Amino acid sequence: MTPANSLKKKNSIVSQFVALTQKQLFIPVAALLCLIIFNLIADPSFFAIKLGHNSDGQPILSGYLITILDYGSELAILAIGMTLVTAASGGQDISVGAAIAIAGSVILKVLCGDNSRPDHMQAPIIVAFLVACVVAMLFGAFNGSLVAFFKIQPMVATLILFTAGRSIAAWINNNELPIIAEPEFSYFGTFIPGIPIPTPVFIAVACMIVIFLVLKFTNLGLYSQAVGINPNSSRLNGINPAVVKLITYVILGLCVAVVGLIKVSRISTINYSVIAKDIEMDAILAVALGGNSLGGGKFNMPASIMGAYIIQFLTTTLYKFNVLSSALPAYKAVVVIILVILSAPVVRERLASFKKSRSAKNSVKEVA
Amino acid sequence: MENTEVLQMRGICKYFPGVNALQNVDFTLRSGEIHALMGENGAGKSTLIKVLTGVYVKDGGTILIRKNTSDEAMPDFEEAHIRSPQDAQNSGISTVYQEIALCPNLSVAENMFIGRSGAFTNWADMNKKTGEILKQLDIPATPRQQLGSCSIAVQQMVAIARAVDMKCRVLILDEPTSSLDEQEVEKLFKLMRDLKKKNVGIIFVTHFLDQVYEVCDRITVLRDGTLVGEYVIEDLPRVKLVSKMLGKDLDDVADIKGDSDVGPVDKTQTPVLEAHKLVSNAGIKPFDFNIYSGEVNGFTGLLGSGRSECVRAIFGADKVLGGTVNVKGKHVRIKKPIDAMKNGIGYLPEDRKLDGIVADLSVRDNIILALQVMKGFFRPFSKAKAEAMAQEYIALLDIKTASSDTPIGQLSGGNQQKVILARWLLTNPDFLILDEPTRGIDIGTKIEIQKLALKLASEGKSVTFISSEIDEMLRTCSRLIVMRDRKVVGELTGDDLTRNKVMATIAGGEET
Ligand SMILES: Nc1ncnc2c1ncn2[C@@H]1O[C@H](COP(=O)(O)OP(=O)(O)OP(=O)(O)O)[C@@H](O)[C@H]1O
Ligand SMILES: [Mg+2]
């Protein structure tokens, strides 16, 4: 190899590093590293995982990391739908928390029938879940058509369901609090006997596999990004922008139903005003943390999913340090501000040119 | 004062990931001159301008601007640290960028005065002043009109008016004429000559050689991001200029129709497409249209005469209100673009930025987009297949891009246009509509595209061509449909296809 060649190679390594900092995954990975380092210094026991037994004598894993995986999975599932909605419609659905309440309420209603404390479930769980899917997708379609056909800003359009959703959820069960006594129902939100890992983790993995296959074997990714970036030219290339937007809201509806199942299964009942409260903010944050533009267009699904787990990491860390749950949003807001600033194009450009001038100086040194 | 230097750029460098957009480029501008900046697509013209105006931060070199003193004895230059377009404005540099950078949802007047130092507070005054400027420049718009509702040409003129109205010593025009017709270009040139008399230095970027020789005094040529040289216009005849730009000689192009093997069109066959009394919601009168296999025809007329609206109606891009369309003798209903695409029609739109590119998507995705949509939602191309197709067309049309993964928004204007062209060629349409396909395309490629249209015809396809350049239309089309006031007013074929005859029909004799 000639010296010139090797120099070229070195340069390309430098430029690769610069390119890396410009990569979308850079910010979420950096955020994750910060959190890990912070916890390592503050209290390494954060990372301890214990194998214990629950009251039924079944083996279960416990520890902060398990909590993160467990609750992060709910967020990850929502982030999948939220990412698509954001990409195609350039806005966010703020009604997912309320929609989860509805989906959960529907599941309980189907399982309990007329009696709110039945001895046995009145229908198979799968039936209840499918009914909830249909209902949640219908609500998704409602949001979606407001956005797609009536061209209402997504935040405004979904404000309707955000406001009304929890009352609808309560109304479905006549404001009663149904309780499911059978243990099988709790498997979805807690543990399956004999398996020490929380079930939501498996459900999230299944959802990830499904969305991966959907993105690979359909044009959902291409269409939703194209529509989000330039609806005019998408239309002139034969895409129907309204339908694409609608579909993303319906898919988010499906994600909502899955999370609804997990949520009600965790406690085998429902609390209409508390269930999935503020979860929409975390889901939106996950998308942003993944480095995706909240203005729509290009997206990176793995980054969003990672963002979801990092948000949960942050929440759990804050809980561990006994931050009051009422104070949580304030802390998160600080993180959001930092992230938004870091990912702003201006700052990125600055960073890039700073790196470049550094590397230029270095290469001058090399020559000398 | 005559011919003192106002601006010196020395050793300018600018790198983008994977591209050396500018390497060691020198550029000098004198006061009271019109200086053409020439080069192929992607040569770095716009980048040089954006470095000068602070849109991009340069990676090397210095920019010197003459101090604003009246003392002629001291040729005093100071280094200008231009970090933002605002800085540039304060140094007396005003710019019309290649892509219109105004706010379509503000009024014309607001666009004229937005972001000026010494903010206007009096709205009535602002509207009045704008009205005067519009009238002075003969721009068919009202101050209160929303800018987005004006045609591209009018928007372009507003952008120019805005730049010119600011007190400036240096005026930069990056392809200002690409969407103007001949009369508007004349208006612009008159304006430029007036400014020249007032000792303003003007940088003028264009791909129209005629325009260069009409107004310019000096030419700087760039090629692949490097400086080829600076010339006085008299020393550089056309042929030489072209070879400097391309780095090779260009074949004579006077008559490409003559040496292409497009035979006479067989009019006894059924037309590939036949439209009867077609009308859309874009305000055109019902029109008839037909095209045969192996034919290149075109719509001509002034800007705003309804050329684009006609082809948009055929493609289903606007809402069709009435009329019938037959494709190969079979009645079809085209309500939206996908219907047209399924019937073998392709449409390269006029407004590249708004209707053509999907800016953040890669060159590859932009190339395969239309074909992918036709293939269907559930049948995506494999990455390898998509890459192979993209590479084929990148090579075929000589698209300058760092890779097929580069977002199309980062390409130079002309190269973006080539990508959109590639997109439609890839769908292999029977009938391809090209609305201003050579806008912003350099002289070498322009001829390639014209040849391509003729080649498609010789393969039995049909092409409809729209261009503001009459010469280009005459070179490619064997039949011209003439439009005036949103109505088809005539059709020219055979011996009638002369410049004079076309101009006369467009203008409609001497009637008003
Ligand atoms: N923002 C950007 N990021 C990356 N590359 C860029 C960017 N802007 C321009 N380039 C690259 O720099 C080169 C020069 O582009 P430039 O726009 O200056 O060309 P140009 O001479 O104006 O061409 P045209 O006649 O097509 O307008 C091109 O290869 C282009 O791809
Ligand atoms: Mg340019």
Account of the protein in words:
The complex is a heterodimer of chains A (368) and B (512). Chain A is mainly α. Chain A folds into 2 domains: 71-322, ABC transporter involved in vitamin B12 uptake, BtuC (Orthogonal Bundle); 333-368. Chain A is built from 14 helices and 2 strands. In chain A, strands 1-2 form a two-stranded antiparallel sheet. The two termini of chain A are 21 Å apart. Chain B folds into 3 domains: 1-92 and 169-176 and 200-236, P-loop containing nucleotide triphosphate hydrolases (Rossmann fold, 3-Layer(aba) Sandwich); 255-344 and 465-512, Rossmann fold; 345-428, 3-Layer(aba) Sandwich (Rossmann fold), CATH 3.40.50.300. In chain B, strand 9 and strand 10 form a beta hairpin. In chain B, helix 13 packs across helix 14 (383-396) and helix 13 packs parallel to helix 15 (413-426). Chain B is globular and about 75 Å long. The chains are: A mainly alpha (368), B alpha/beta (512). The A-B interface holds A 15, 19, 216-220, 222-223, 225-226, 229-230, 232-240, 297-298, 349, 353, 356, 360 and B 15, 17, 57, 59, 315, 317, 336-338, 341, 347, 349, 354-361, 365, 369-370, 372-374, 376-378, 380, 423. Residues 16, 19, 21, 39, 41-47, 98, 400, 410-415, 440, 442 of chain B line the site of adenosine-5'-triphosphate.
Coarse shape of chain B: globular
- Strand fraction of chain A: under 5%
- Roughly what percent helix of chain A? 55-70%
Mean pLDDT of chain A: 87
CATH-assigned fold name of the largest domain in chain B: Rossmann fold
How much strand of chain B? 15-25%
Distance between the termini of chain A: 21 Å
Tally of individual domains of chain B: 3
